[in-house]
Amino acid sequence: MSPRLHNVVKMSLGNLPALVRDKFKAAQITGDLTFYETQLALLRCSGLPIQVRFSPALAQKPKSNKSNHAEKNFDPFLNPAEGLLIGEVPPYHNLVLNRFPIIPDHFILATKQFKEQTYLLQEEDLEATYQCIKEYRDNGDELFGFFNSGEHSGASQSHRHIQFLPVNSMHSGMTGLGDWKPLLDNLIADPQPEMPFTYFSAAIPENPSAAELHQIYTKLHKMGCRAVEESVENSDGTHLSLHSDHNESSISYNLGFTHKVMALCPRVSEGIVIKSETNEDVGLVALNGTLLAGTILVKSELEWSALRKDESKLKYILGAIGIPPVHSLVSRHTIGKI
């Protein structure tokens, strides 16, 4: 074990929200993380509220002095910086802060040893995920978790990690904008809402075992794979590649978690360029797993302005990153609770 990890707090996790909050504040003071303020608008898609956040400063975040080769091979989770390391979730995971957050207390569950982000999650990953979610809930807050896997998912690191955003923190800036809650909590409603992308969702039982969580995940993943395969079969499929390694996911996807829902969105594109009223390119809007929370980020004022002026662009973006439901041959009754 690295000497740096000998003094790490080995948590029962009962004090997790306070640990994260205190570590976040300390890391801001020391400069170990840089928090980027955002402006916030609330748009609607299929009648459901979607947060659109704009952070002009994030596009100018500090650049590394490392060579391109070193930067490409740098693993922030293998030996986490002391100023960002919150503690351990024994025996397999560490908790670390996100270095460039736009939501307060954004933190990450990462495997101690390197494991591929594109490989299927294991029971211990899901058990640790729901341990974090439960501890937040037991302390009066909800936690949204998300996992990005594959080239089209918005994943930025190859070391396996699951990210978390406290729902109370996600409400920051919402005053006067209306009601909002994580999108995936609406995705088990009956009838289910029609979104511009195909998704699969399942209700989580009370106090689920690691085996139960893994069974739900694998069923959702199999349904996502089937939807992508059928989409490829019924189109030219030239922009998609399906992997055959049994350890690796054959598709790109986002997975979202709350205490009561797990949802999966198959991905076929990381993002799409939107256009202005004069049909000029405005910029590429790229999405990751926060889309399942009903939160997206834009980095230019032109993108921000274009979306607020024309809500139909939001539907256009969400339809472009996944499989349009009309193209999925998986029957609607299977897209729901497992």
Please sum up the structure shown:
The chain is built from 7 helices and 13 strands. The protein has about 350 residues and is an alpha+beta fold.
**What is the terminal separation in angstroms?**
40 Å
The helicity comes to 10-25%
What string gives the helices and strands in order?
Answer: HEEHEEEHEEHEHEEEEEHH
The mean pLDDT is: 87
Outline: globular
Sequence stretches where pLDDT stays below 50 over 5 or more residues = 1-9, 327-338
Major sheet attributes: 8 strands, antiparallel
Question: What is the CA-atom radius of gyration, in angstroms?
Answer: 19 Å
Which class of secondary structure composition applies to the elements? alpha+beta
Strand content: 15-25%
**Structure summary, number of beta strands:** 13
**Strands of the largest sheet, in order across it?**
3-4-5-7-6-9-10-8
Helical region count? Answer: 7
Describe this structure in words.
This protein is 25% helix and 22% strand. By secondary structure, it is an alpha+beta fold. The strands form three sheets. The protein has an eight-stranded antiparallel beta sheet with strand order 3-4-5-7-6-9-10-8. Strands 1-2-13 form a three-stranded mixed beta sheet. The chain has a two-stranded antiparallel sheet with strand order 11-12. Helix 3 crosses helix 5. The N and C termini lie far apart (40 Å). The model is unreliable at 1-9 and 327-338 (pLDDT under 50).
